[in-house]
Amino acid sequence: MSPTLDTTDAPHVAPGLGFPAGPSAEPSELGWPETVSRETSTSANPAPAALGSSADSDAETGSTSSVPVVDDTDPATPDDREERAVIAAAIPGADWNTPLAQAVAEDERKRVTLSGRSVPRPPRTRVMTVANQKGGVGKTTTTVNIAAALAQAGSTVLVIDLDPQGNASTALGIDHHSEVPSVYDVLVDGAPLGDVVQPCPDLPGLVCAPATIDLAGAEIELVSLVARETRLQKAVAAYVEERTASGDRLDYVLVDCPPSLGLLTVNAFVAGQEVFIPIQCEYYALEGLSQLLKNIELIRSHLNPALHVSTILLTMYDGRTRLSAQVADEVRAHFSEQTLRATVPRSVRISEAPSHAQTVMTYDPNSSGALSYLEAAVEIAERGAADDTTEESA
To answer: Is the alpha carbon torsion for 326, 327, 332, 333 positive or negative?
Structure first.
């Protein structure tokens, strides 16, 4: 049996980002406690574990590896990014004739670079609307996994499930049957957002406002209501102010939109300052992007001048096909500043996780999908911090 750390008196364990040091751990030269061996399970519902597998779990049958354990909660821990970069650079590479070896090496570099990392907290709450009117591009999957990765890295995050299907609520393990207070009550009945928010059972720091089937009728009911486009914006602003006054400020609000451009999506655009667009690496996704941008411009002109596209994430990337590479190149050529360097590959583990009421970050933190979302979350946080620094200096 592999030895484990005694975390009885340790701070909260962030699954997938590395365990905090136990009371008897001896720090190494990098500021890490000594490495420990652990088994990576590939059962149907493995326990959350530190990132440590050397291959994508989609193809694993079980392995044992050594995992650097990082105390990310200790403010005295030095910034070890340079040391991590040296270790990552020392991992042997592979040529194009060995694509599997290339993928394994790339995942291991991400694991070394990202495992145990914290992310800078934004100076103010960032409200991000995750939208794309085309269905099946990974909006909900991206919303819940980015939210989980940010929460694991120490941020406080609210996910608002604005899709009547309630898939984001399912992935976060939140009850959303018809009797549960939901976003419908906020939009139609004017209930405070704090009355419907539920904590995610797997990830402290992450809360969710669930969607129920009642939300399917909200599009019609909102038509006759006063200020129908700004109802979500007022509820979000009040909840953010309430959390800030209590000393537990929200860092991120992620709004998961339905695959349409109706009143629910309009409410999400008015409520947010930033638009986060997941784009599937296929032609149809590119075709729908131009229409989405036109609608965003209409919202900017009439309802929310602060709205802008801040982030684009390429999803379902398949490096074996030229089409994925061509779509990625096209998006980067037109939206070079907004498009993240990270891409999310097709991964069975990402698809499996919701069936266990989990995100891939807790279901299989060793998989390539979890590492890719973690990489994207770190990039989002660091870009936000850099933008705020630039604005202050200007």
So the answer is: positive
CA distance 297 to 300: 5
User: Which amino acid, 384?
Assistant: G
pLDDT at 89 over 90: no
Side chain identity, residue 37: S
Higher pLDDT, 322 or 9: 322
Rounded Cα distance, 127 and 158, in Å: 9
Secondary element (H or E) of residue 276: strand 274-280
Considering only the C-alpha atoms of the chain, give the largest distance between any 2 of them, rounded to a whole number of Å.
65
* Integer Cα distance of 85 and 79 in angstroms: 12
Specify the pairing of strand 206-209 against strand 308-317. unpaired
pTM of the prediction? 0.75
Q: What is the pLDDT of residues 90-114, one digit of tens each?
A: 666 656 565 565 666 666 666 666 6
Residue with tokens 């960032």: 126
Run of H or E including 80: none
CA 264 to CA 280: how far, in whole Å?
A: 22
What domains can be seen in the chain, in order of their start residue? 1-118 (no CATH), 126-393 (3.40.50.300)
Q: Is the pLDDT of residue 72 over 60?
A: no
Give residue 383's pLDDT. 86
User: Virtual CA dihedral for 256, 258, 263, 266, nearest 10 degrees?
Assistant: 50
